Amino acid sequence: MNRFEVAKPTTLAQAKDLVQEKAWSIYKAGGIDVIDHLKEHLAEPPRIVDLKSIPGLSEIKVEADGSLRIGALVKLADLAADERVKKTHAALAIAAGETASPQVRNVATMGGSVLQRPRCWYYRLEEYQCLKKGGEVCYAVGGENRYHVIFGGGPSYAVHPSNSAVALVALGASFVFDGPKGGRTVLASEFFQLPSKNAQVENTLGVGEILTEVRVPAGAGRSIYDEVRERQAFDWPLVSVAVALRLEGGLVKDARVVLGAVAPIPWRSNRAEAALMGKPLNEATLQDAGRAATVGAAPLSDNGYKVGLVQTLVRRTLAQLA
Ligand SMILES: Cc1cc2nc3c(=O)[nH]c(=O)nc-3n(C[C@H](O)[C@H](O)[C@H](O)COP(=O)(O)OP(=O)(O)OC[C@H]3O[C@@H](n4cnc5c(N)ncnc54)[C@H](O)[C@@H]3O)c2cc1C
Ligand code: SF4
């Protein structure tokens, strides 16, 4: 770990100035992922700007229309336990609650969760200078790739790491940013970006931009999140899925199916959604949707098992909404 100073701004304007004043300075929220980066020398910032000293970013508000406004510093444990979120946007509460361990959830934040970097072991180890770190090679191709992508890969094959992001895309959420060039709001589904655009970054976060709030609209219908993992106590998902759907007269009127841990971004499955539209949620429809979710999958040498897992998980998760 390098030597660095810690700055504690009390306004967003101060935070932006502090990060821009010294090149390579970084923001910290809960610090779970930031500290990992420091320990592995993946980041060597001269200054860490702690967003936790800025008041007003830790609230969950429910608007009159039922939509949510979630401050970027809301802890995952608070999100998971919020009865209002559980009632109206269950997929998000479940995804937050399934993340890591109670210790991590009591520190990790909404913003840090969606902005955390990938967990590919080659990326995380200092000695591998892979494509994502500006090197020439992706070590996962021809290397250890059992936890890597089956959709959307190349030239990097690391999966998107955030549970919450998968639920947020399914729920049609947007991210609100404040940056040196002003504010902007972007749909979660458009914020995350494939490595074919740029293997070194996972999203369109601009230099010095701060995620201030996540907005989650009402009206996506009933929603749910589920995942399969190796260790039940706590672990990263092998595959996950978030579903939001509306039924009318027993038939699916609207559906969003988003897969996690299978692609470099939360992966919306248009084919699974098409298999559901206008159908009753019976066993035949669930089977069709599960199969449709894996059309186009391109597993690597060691992760073909994810195809079967996705099919089962999609079917099993939809059955909970039937
Ligand atoms: C043992 C373990 C198991 C885990 N399992 C899971 C899991 O199953 N599922 C899962 O989703 N995650 C898992 N995680 C990851 C964990 O959820 C994330 O590391 C955590 O959510 C990051 O949040 P944070 O607030 O600590 O972010 P930080 O570490 O503070 O920040 C993360 C990144 O986001 C940036 N950042 C943070 N907030 C903002 C903001 N508001 N504006 C701009 N930039 C910002 C930081 O600069 C940094 O780049 C696990 C972690 C551990 C240690
Ligand atoms: S999958 Fe991405 S992060 Fe992992 S080694 Fe390849 S380029 Fe690096």
How does this model look, in words?
The protein is built from 13 helices and twelve strands. It is α+β, with helices and mostly antiparallel strands and 322 residues long. It has a five-stranded antiparallel β-sheet with strand order 4-5-8-6-7. It has a four-stranded antiparallel β-sheet with strand order 9-10-11-12. Helices cover 30% and strands 21% of the residues. Helix 5 packs antiparallel against helix 9 (163-170), helix 11 runs antiparallel to helix 12 and helix 12 (283-292) runs antiparallel to helix 13. The chain has a single domain (56-322), classed as Uridine Diphospho-n-acetylenolpyruvylglucosamine Reductase, domain 3, CATH 3.30.465. The model has no long low-confidence stretch (mean pLDDT 97). A hairpin with a 7-residue loop joins strand 9 and strand 10 (237-248). It binds flavin-adenine dinucleotide and iron/sulfur cluster. Iron/sulfur cluster (SF4) binds next to helix 8.
Number of strands: 12
| Beta fraction | 15-25%
Overall radius of gyration:
19 Å
Broad structural category: alpha+beta
- Please give the alpha-carbon distance between the first and last residues: 51 Å
Query: What is the CATH class name?
Result: Alpha Beta
Helix content: 25-40%
Largest sheet: 5 strands, antiparallel
Instruction: Please give the count of helices.
Output: 13
Average pLDDT metric: 97
Question: What molecules are bound to this protein?
Answer: flavin-adenine dinucleotide, iron/sulfur cluster
CATH domain topology: Uridine Diphospho-n-acetylenolpyruvylglucosamine Reductase, domain 3
- Uncertain residue ranges: none
Please trace the helix and strand order, writing H or E for each element.
EHEHEEEHHHHHHHEEHEEEEEHHH
- CATH architectural name: 2-Layer Sandwich
- Gross geometry: globular
Give the tally of structural domains.
Answer: 1
Order the strands across the largest sheet as they lie in space: 4-5-8-6-7
